[in-house]
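Issue 218. Parser rejects a valid record. Input:
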Amino acid sequence: MSVKGVTPSDLKTILHSKRANIYYLEKCRVQVNGGRVEYVTQEGKESFYWNIPIANTTAVMLGMGTSVTQMAMREFARAGVMVGFCGTDGTPLYSANEIDIDVSWLSPQSEYRPTTYLQNWVSFWFDEEKRLQAAKQFQFIRLIQIEKYWLGSRPHLEKRFHPDKNTLKNILEHARLGMENAEDHTTLMLQEAQLTKSLYKLASQTVGYGQFTRAKRGGGIDLANRFLDQGNYLAYGLAAVATWVTGIPHALAVMHGKTRRGGLVFDIADLIKDALVMPQAFLAAMEGEDNQMFRQRCINAFQQADALDVMITSLQETAESGAVR
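Output the parser choked on:
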């Protein structure tokens, strides 16, 4: 089907929060063919062409051995698709722009994104106390998501993931009280780190994984660590989409500091990482799944939990509430 006469607004008629696809591609060429964006793979002397439905895609991760044409990037931009270059199996993620080397995305250029959210955001962002309150608001949303998907309705998790209810509630309540009483960002970050450490321990015990220590960048052969990295990078992709949709720059973080590049992407991804990625990583590690199976597991979880909706709504509500404090 030709895209002749199709405007950029036509390509964005499916809201980003309702789009179904996140692609990880390797050993292929992404190009435009007959008006469609396709990726081409080689098997011997034969070439195989696969369509990418860009209007229903949030992010594309390009792994080892990939190339993309200028025309394909133009179509991705027209449809508002985030594009990232990454290593094998999606980690680490990097691209040639101003964002942090481990979490980088090429953002579509658009002068027509909303301005209200950014204007509201900057109206409170330079006030230390208001920025701290916004960071706390994000953390409270994070706690709600964890309780919802670890104890409540969780169609994306197997029935055998049953963390001890009292233990989890105690962890979340302790974190909530500590975060409420935090007087600065350093204290809040400490509370966040303690929460994450407790959740790792509980998730590991729940599935019978044994001793677990979180290692930077996958920890070599440790499957749970590798899957945590891969799932987190997918969450960063959704977070980058959320910030792009609302028009708020990555530099205006509320939790991860004023100087860390891409900080707001980390802030937004934290809303759903523990709730959705962490259980999947331990379950997949116990099952001995491969990387592709785990990525699909995470993508299904994001879709079923409306993760991108949560991110966008959280940004919008925080921007609005921060502006009127």
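Fixed in the parser; the record now loads. The beta strands are 21-25, 28-33, 36-43, 46-51, 57-62, 66-68, 82-86, 93-94.
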